[in-house]
Structures are given as C-alpha cells and as structure tokens.
C-alpha cells in the first residue's frame, strides 16, 4: 500500500522532470498521466467493482440455488405422482379381480336361485296337476252318480246305501 502511494506521488515529478529540448514529443508524459489516472481510478473503483462482482456472483448463486430447489421440488412431485400412478394401477388391477370374483359369485347365485325356482315350479306344476286330476275325478264321479241317481233304473234303499258307505269307510 505504501509502495503504491509513494509511486503515485513520484510519478508526476518524473513526468515534469523531463527535458523539453528538441522535438516536442510528449508521449511519455501522456502515458505517465494515463497510468496515473488509471491507477487512481483502480484504487477508488476496485473495491466497489469487486463488491459489485461478488454481489452479482452471490445473486446468480442464489438464483441457481432457488432453481435447484424448484427442480428438486418438481422432481419430488413427479416421483410422488409416479408412485400414485403405480398405486392406482395396482388398485385398478385388484378392483378388476374383485369385480370378476363378484361376477362369478353373482352368476353362481343366479344359477342356484334359477335351479331352485325351476324345482319349485315343477313341484307347483305337479301339485296343480294332481289337484286338477282330483277335481276332474270328483267332477266325473259326481256326474256319474247324478246320472245314476237321476235314473230310475237303480233303486237303492236307505239301509243298503248306509251299508255300502260303512263298508267303504271301514
């Protein structure tokens, strides 16, 4: 630091100590003045420029970290969504399997109920048939008896009729 300051003070002296004889070439003085100006400029502007540069780097690093965080969050969401999709596929497969089992159970239940209904209908038909046969028999017997009793060809007295009924009953 002291060397820079000493150099800064000595440079103007050296610039004015030059000889003005002969041709007037002031290139050295101009170069020294430029170096002096540039040195002063660097001395005063270097720290703020360096701080500005470091702040810019920190700002970019913060943005990069923010973007990385968003990327991690979106990746986590993607992984979560993929897990949910896999779970949904597994659930869908189990639901399809359960639906197939339920359909088979329903088919068996309907088949069993249909068989029972058919057996009940056959039994009902048989009972109805027997009932109709008895009804028809009674009707035929009743008609025949009415014909027999209506005609005078068969005369049965009351005692004989009671004996016939008693024989049939016992």
TrEMBL record:
Transmembrane segments annotated in the record for this chain: 27-46
UniProt keywords, alphabetically: ATP synthesis, Cell membrane, CF(0), Coiled coil, Hydrogen ion transport, Ion transport, Membrane, Signal, Transmembrane, Transmembrane helix, Transport
GO molecular function, one term: proton-transporting ATP synthase activity, rotational mechanism
Membrane topology: Single-pass membrane protein
Location relative to the cell: Cell membrane; Endomembrane system
Coiled-coil stretches: 50-116
UniProt signal peptide: 1-17
Quaternary context: F-type ATPases have 2 components, F(1) - the catalytic core - and F(0) - the membrane proton channel. F(1) has five subunits: alpha(3), beta(3), gamma(1), delta(1), epsilon(1). F(0) has three main subunits: a(1), b(2) and c(10-14). The alpha and beta chains form an alternating ring which encloses part of the gamma chain. F(1) is attached to F(0) by a central stalk formed by the gamma and epsilon chains, while a peripheral stalk is formed by the delta and b chains.
Family under the similarity heading: Belongs to the ATPase B chain family.
HAMAP family (UniProt xref): ATP_synth_b_bprime (MF_01398)
Protein name in UniProt: ATP synthase subunit b
Organism the protein comes from: Campylobacter californiensis
Species lineage: Bacteria, Pseudomonadati, Campylobacterota, Epsilonproteobacteria, Campylobacterales
């Amino acid at each position: 630091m002291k060397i820079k300051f000493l150099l800064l003070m000595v440079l103007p002296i050296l610039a004015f100590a030059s000889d003005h004889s002969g041709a007037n070439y002031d290139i050295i003085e101009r170069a020294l003045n430029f170096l002096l100006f540039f040195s002063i400029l660097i001395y005063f502007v270097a720290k703020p420029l360096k701080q500005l540069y470091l702040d810019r780097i920190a700002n970019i690093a913060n943005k990069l970290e923010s973007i990385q965080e968003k990327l991690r969050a979106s990746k986590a969401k993607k992984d979560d969504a993929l897990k949910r999709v896999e779970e949904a596929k597994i659930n869908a497969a189990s639901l399809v399997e359960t639906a197939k089992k339920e359909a088979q159970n329903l088919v068996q239940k309907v088949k069993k109920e249909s068989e029972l209904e058919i057996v009940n209908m056959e039994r009902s038909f048989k009972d109805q048939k027997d009932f109709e046969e008895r009804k028809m028999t009674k009707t035929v017997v009743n008609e025949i008896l009415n014909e027999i009793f209506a005609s005078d060809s068969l005369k049965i007295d009351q005692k004989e009729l009671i004996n016939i009924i008693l024989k049939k009953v016992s």
